[in-house]
Specification:
Order of helices and strands: EEHHHHHHHHHHHHHHHH
Strand order of the largest sheet: 1-2
Helix content: over 70%
Shape: globular
Radius of gyration: 21 Å
Distance between the termini: 24 Å
Number of domains: 1
Number of helices: 16
Length: 397
Amino acid sequence: MKVSPTIGNRIDSLDMLRGFALLGILIANMLSFHSPYFYIDALTYFGTPGDEESYKLINIFIETSFYPIFAMMFGYGLNMQYEKANANGVNFAPIMARRLAILMGFGLIHALFIWSGDVLFTYAIMGFIMIAAVRIPKKWLLWIASLVYLIPSLLFIGLIYVITMFDPNQLMEGFSDIQQIERAITAYGHGTYGEAFVFRISEWILFGLTGSFMGVFMILPLIMIGSAFSKMKLFERASEWKGRIAIVAILSLALGIFIKAWPYIDNTHTYYNTLIQQLIGGPILAIGYACVIILLCQLPIFITIFRPVSKAGRMSLTTYLMQSVIATLIFYSYGFGLYGKVDLATGTLIAVGIFAIQVIFAELWLMKFRMGPFEWIWRKGIYGRNMPKKEENGKVL
């Protein structure tokens, strides 16, 4: 059985996919870094021809199609740690609980002091559920994940559709919260760090904390799917399964792009159309993207050219947190103060530029150190003075 190329005891293609997912996540997050995106109707707010076209491309090809990849990779890694603990005769639950508690701490600090759109807190909560769920056999895990995701999503879409049919005005489609838009611009575009901090807390309570509870239906199933793929050894057996992966890639890309582009094809941006686009089309397209990267990682030339991207994925916690630090310093008033002052194309180019710098940084950092700075803090918090240095055969833990 052929396996994917590895770095040490890490799966190279797994880190590569994490790296590309982080680029897509940054491009999507950039919308809320430089504008009051949580409160606007994007179709009217980004009304200039250039912004309208840029948003269309981001909305179809980027939004809601990269965070599912990262969530699945979180689940993949969690199951690998579970299997490693079993193989070494180590009690998995206590170590993972400490790991997740520290991740939750990172998430809280990130959400309250840097950017309210944090996902680490939600991942940590879902991870605690996964301490039990990871023990479920792979076939059952896939079925449970599918049902937990699809049933609430389809019921919600159906409910919104019925409400829209009976009273199209009840959902206030196209509504923008002018008061909150003004508050966001005042806090982030013109306010002090203290004023931004106060507004950030209110945002996180409204969106972040609420989103953490909704994560049971939106994030947890994706993590479970990733864990099931890990049990199937998807990355390790990618060369063996490349024919099937190619078929899934073609079908997922075609269906995902079609669903996500449908509101533009049909020219009806109803609330339920948007939900279908995000909740159904987003994850399907994510699977297509993931399959493409997995297949490309079977080509040595691809691995060679894009290996630095895998380095950014290898230190994904550091990469993710520093994206928020850098972006908020660029856009918020206590930094360069560009909030609300750049168009979407410029914002996207800034995102690509930030990621390119991070890739270079990761390459240089990992030449000297075996893990990223925040990964080291995380690991130190788990093990303290007894932090292990190497596994058997000299492989890094």
